[in-house]
Amino acid sequence: MKAIKGCVNRECESFTKKKAYKDKFKFCPICGEELEYVCSDCWKVLEHNTEKYCISCKMNREQKKAQQANKVKAAGATIAGVATVAWKNKDKIVEVGKNAVKIIKK
């Protein structure tokens, strides 16, 4: 991915609204400050325009992705456990379902 250009003048409206500009722009159209390649998350100036995020934001994203994967694995294990118990007790579950339908109809 490629970095975005943004104004680094903290008093500029472009900076406060985190407005991104295309590569063809060299200067901020609002304040006239020279545009820099910035991180898409924290708006920190980047050394190279080859990466979209700075190192700290990239690490945070990777950690969040790993945490999300762990949550999905845990949820899958829970669902598999519930499905196993439900399969073993399917007759009881069918009976409970029938009783629930009778109660709802009343």
Can you offer a commentary on this structure?
- The protein is built from three helices and three strands, in the order βαββαα.
- It has helices spanning 13-16, 55-88, 90-105; strands at residues 4-6, 20-21, 36-38.
- The protein has a three-stranded antiparallel β-sheet, with no helix packed on it.
Quick structural gist:
With 106 residues, the chain is mainly alpha-helical. 51% of the residues lie in helices and 8% in strands.
**Element-level helix/strand string:** EHEEHH
Order of strands in the sheet with most strands: 2-1-3
By DSSP, the count of extended strands is 3
Helix % is 40-55%
Low-confidence stretches: none
Could you give the distance between the termini?
60 Å
| Shape annotation | elongated
Class by alpha and beta content: mainly alpha
The biggest beta sheet, please?
3 strands, antiparallel
Query: What's the tally of helices?
Result: 3
